[in-house]
Amino acid sequence: MSPSDTLAAASAAGTTPGATTVPRIVSVDDHVVEPPDLWSSRLPSRYRDIGPRIEYHPQGEVTLDGGTYRERPGTEGRNVAWWMYEDHTYSVKRLIAAAGYRPEEITTDGITYDEMRPGCWQPQARIADMEMNHTDASLCFPNYPRFCGQLFAERNDKELSLLCVQAYNDWMVDEWCGDSGGRLIPLCLVPLWDAEMAAAEVRRNAERGVRAVAFSELPTWLGLPSIHSGHWDPFFAACAETGTVVCMHIGSGTRTVSPAPDAPDAVTASLIFCNSAASLIDFLFSGVLHRWPDLKLMYAEAQIGWIPYALERADDVWETHQGWSEARRNTPEPPSHYYYRQVYGCFFKDSVGIDLLDRVGVDNITFETDYPHADGTWPDTEAVATRLFGHLDPEAVYKIARGNAIKLLGLDFDQ
């Protein structure tokens, strides 16, 4: 696309004349707060008392263990919304429904659904909030099941777990995205405990137009087989065959990197990109991208400034240490070859990555708003995007704001 064509597309996409060169955003990382009846209205009656359901109880003590909250309801005080599922209890928190609140108000305290913006969990209200935020379309990761549905893999009754995964996907396709006119983009889950069942769920959803699936950036951190083992080959084959993008959200390995057990949470929050760096390098040397050249990976909320050095180091190991490191066992081309061909990063707070754009790859990055999380840029995403990359040439601006996401997910926009 030429710069003049790009400017015309940007204008058609809703750019405000004279105000900015950034077209309306296609965000590939937002979140949904699951509605209270998502599972209780879909599960068989025999499971409704043990499957995921909302109950109201007092706030309890909350601790964060890696990427997992450890908590139980309290015995006194005001009632807040709690998800109850087998032996698991989880309060709905201000931290994950932060849109519209000041930073000092965003805590891990529990809330009710009446205390969050309706756009957190109601599709039409979400679209209204997207209109306020210069956003055309949005791909949403889950909250309660965690970023790739780890919760269901951890529970005891796997028949119920499978029904929960399928119920989530049916809700995602039919209700969350169904009447949005393509503005809410479906992202589905798979049963992580069985690769063949995961492949079947990918194909089931692909048949109804789903082009994105959530997966763990580091499955071994969940106690699952590695991507080197061959265990996941049926899943990767299904994704490649159906054009389903493997979307890995930061923290989807549940664990986080910390140099000391008594380090403040700020340390792990600053180091969280290390999870995605480890995952990317794992994939680059695994042979997965070589065996399935049509497979596409997307790293959500990982930012992008770390990518050039990770690629440089991986390529150097591939060349310099080929004699002992098994660098070429599954990777006949330099690792960076597979990155530029098949991998997409995602950012919204990374000026360093933009400074290194020629090495990150203008065709390899997408943008996000992270609504309604505390890190999110709502309702100021247009200003944030303009500040970060509005100075680039029009074609690059278009690709980052929406063009790469449209191509990656096969969206029916700007055609």
Descriptive overview:
This protein has helices spanning 3-12, 123-131, 150-154, 158-176, 195-206, 233-242, 265-271, 273-286, 288-291, 307-320, 335-342, 351-355, 357-360, 381-389, 394-409, and strands spanning 25-31, 53-58, 62-65, 68-71, 79-85, 88-91, 135-141, 184-185, 212-214, 245-249, 297-300, 343-347, 365-367. The protein is of the alpha/beta class. The model is unreliable at 1-20 (pLDDT under 50). The two termini are 12 Å apart. Helix 6 links the parallel strand 9 and strand 10. Helices cover 35% and strands 15% of the residues. Helix 8 (273-286) packs across helix 11. The chain has a single domain (3-44, 118-409), classed as TIM Barrel, CATH 3.20.20. The radius of gyration is 21 Å and the shape is globular. The strands form four sheets. It has a five-stranded parallel β-sheet with strand order 9-10-11-12-13. Strands 1-7-8 form a three-stranded parallel β-sheet. The protein has a three-stranded antiparallel β-sheet with strand order 2-5-6, with no helix packed on it.
Strand/helix succession: HEEEEEEHEHHEHEHEHHHEHHEHHEHH
- What structural category arises from helix and sheet content? alpha/beta
**Strands of the biggest beta sheet: in what spatial order?**
9-10-11-12-13
How many alpha or pi helices?
15
